[in-house]
Amino acid sequence: MNYTLHQLQVFLKVTEKESITKAAEDLFLTQPAVSIQLKNFQDQFSIPLTEVVGRKLYVTDFGWEIAEAAEKIIELVYAINYKSSAYEGSLSGKLKISIVSTGKYVMPFFLSDFINNNSGVELYMDVTNKSKVVQSLEKNEVDFALVSVLPEHLKISCVELMENKLFLVGSTRGKISSKMNKKGFEKLPLIYREEGSATRAAMENFIRQNNIPASRKIELTSNEAVKQAVMAGLGYSIMPLIGIKNELINKDLQIIEVAGLPIRTTWNLVWLSSKKLSPAAMAFLDYIRQEKDRIILETFNWFQAMD
């Protein structure tokens, strides 16, 4: 047998899409070019890898076995390329990450040393709400996403980064007690994030699970906007602790103790299980696995201590 890496990549894409036309679109090749590469690859096997029935392409059982082997071969090649580039000190490429808005207080600290030590890597980071982060992941527009709620409808791989804690927060200008029971909570004017936000979902779940009647509601479209509104005395909100460190130190905000809080979730770095990570993405993943505990200890020790 004398198949090429390109033929393996073409065949793997055809099995993924179960369509020559769609595979050609994803590979930025013409349909005839994909058909030729597929035929040249299949001709090296005595057992059919695909078959066409009623103008639809189907992958045979043997074809799926070869596709699985092809995926492993390609992953090994990427690993070799990464190790070679890293050894030569010439790692390059783009690293694309989409993160939920509160992740902007977390993700930069997990990126800084890696980016500074690999000047050839270009970073693109989109900060948005959970719904849009999941959309960019689903459309394969990014290498990684940072979320606190895992998307159940996608097949993903995951590395847990660190805990996320959400507290009820109010302005220090108010006369409200630093401790509150359920009846007191019911009377608060609440400030929410927009629909699609994981912080909003966590807040609504807490209110629903505790059977707290809805109170006057303000909706804002960013964590910073919510923080400023709370500081100004417009209302109260359940907010991630990670984003209010300075405001707590400066005594612009206060944490109000309520039974059932804080809400605890986890920030997760996720990627599509079927995605072929670039050398830059693989290098970053290795870096995260090796260095995340050190980064948490050095940067977020204040956060870990607060409950």
How are the SSEs placed, and which strands pair?
Blueprint: H1 5-17, H2 20-27, H3 31-42, E1 50-53, E2 56-59, H4 61-88, E3 92-100, H5 107-117, E4 120-128, H6 130-138, E5 144-147, E6 156-171, E7 179-180, H7 182-186, E8 190-193, H8 198-209, E9 217-220, H9 223-231, E10 237-240, H10 245-249, E11 253-258, E12 263-272, H11 279-299, H12 301-305
Parallel strand pairs: 3-4, 3-5, 7-11, 8-9
Antiparallel strand pairs: 1-2, 5-12, 6-10, 6-11, 6-12
How would you describe this structure to a colleague?
With 307 residues, this protein is α/β, with parallel strands linked by helices. The protein folds into three domains: 82 residues, Arc Repressor Mutant, subunit A; 113 residues, Periplasmic binding protein-like II (D-Maltodextrin-Binding Protein, domain 2), CATH 3.40.190.10; 102 residues, Periplasmic binding protein-like II (D-Maltodextrin-Binding Protein, domain 2, 3-Layer(aba) Sandwich). Helix content is 45%, strand content 25%. It is built from twelve helices and twelve strands. Strands 3, 4, 5, 6, 7, 10, 11 and 12 form an eight-stranded mixed beta sheet that branches. Strands 1-2 form a two-stranded antiparallel sheet. It has a two-stranded parallel ribbon with strand order 8-9. Helix 8 links the parallel strand 8 and strand 9. Helix 1 packs across helix 2, helix 1 crosses helix 4 and helix 5 packs across helix 11. The longest helix is centred in the first third of the chain and has 28 residues. It starts with a helix and ends with a helix.
